[in-house]
Design goal:
alpha+beta; 234 residues; four-stranded antiparallel beta sheet; two-stranded antiparallel sheet; globular
């Protein structure tokens, strides 16, 4: 059982300078290539202007590939993000799936109060946390036993996997650019600087927070401009 998610940046070609050469080609043509040799700190005002006035295409000329391990229900939400994203996920058709399942940690708020569109989550009681852990663990054990039984009887993996719940961990590569990542973060994380409030499920927010940490390290000026302008994707 796991209560965490993991995100690893496995490959990247992303820097603040990528935003600058893309933006300045409109006025400098081939001379814009010189931006690659300059200190982007000198042009952070341009990055902020592009972000503020939502000139978005210069933020697309970069790439980040993440290896992510999370419950299947997280990936089903994740893959609603299609523009600027590429995915390849572990397949239950081609390999026997491992019995690794998600159980919320003690800090996970369990109780929803209010109506749809206007609700909050609050802490659960110790009894509720214990019940969630017990019920999910029992359910996972029964489901995986059923899965193994079908496989042992010669049933194809692609059929047997139907017995498994969405709390099963899967893994995938996800590749994006800074613009598509900003759109993801605007919807899938809560932040005090956000102009537009978002109410993500906590488990996908955990993934988003880890991706944001890596992106902020690669493109600190772009990340700062994103925060300074209300965390709205340009």
């Amino acid at each position: 059982m796991r209560s965490d998610v993991t995100v690893e940046l496995v490959k990247s070609s992303a820097s603040d300078a990528d935003v600058l050469f893309a933006a300045r080609v409109s006025t400098l043509g081939e001379q814009s290539l010189e931006e690659l040799q300059k200190d982007p700190e000198r042009s952070k005002g341009l990055i902020n202007y592009l972000m503020r006035d939502r000139h978005g295409s210069p933020f697309e000329h970069n790439s980040m590939t993440f290896f992510i391990s999370a419950p299947i229900f997280v990936f089903r939400e994740f893959m609603r993000h299609r523009v600027g994203w590429s995915y390849n996920e572990e397949s239950g058709r081609y390999r026997e799936l491992e019995p690794v399942f998600y159980v919320p940690g003690e800090s996970r708020k369990l109780v929803q109060e209010g109506r749809p569109g206007k609700y909050v989550f609050v802490e659960g009681t110790p009894a509720q946390h214990a019940s969630v852990t017990s019920v999910l663990s029992e359910t996972y054990e029964q489901a995986y036993t059923a899965y193994q039984k079908l496989l042992a009887e010669g049933v194809a993996r692609e059929v047997a996997r139907a017995a498994l719940p969405v709390g099963l961990f899967s893994s995938m590569y996800a590749t994006c650019n800074a613009r598509s990542l900003m759109h993801f973060l605007g919807l899938r994380t809560q932040h005090e600087l956000a102009k537009v409030p978002s109410f993500p499920q906590r488990e996908i927010e955990m993934v988003g927070e880890k991706m944001e940490e890596e992106w902020a390290r690669l493109m600190p000026l772009t990340h700062a401009a994103f925060n300074a302008n209300g965390r709205v994707a340009p």
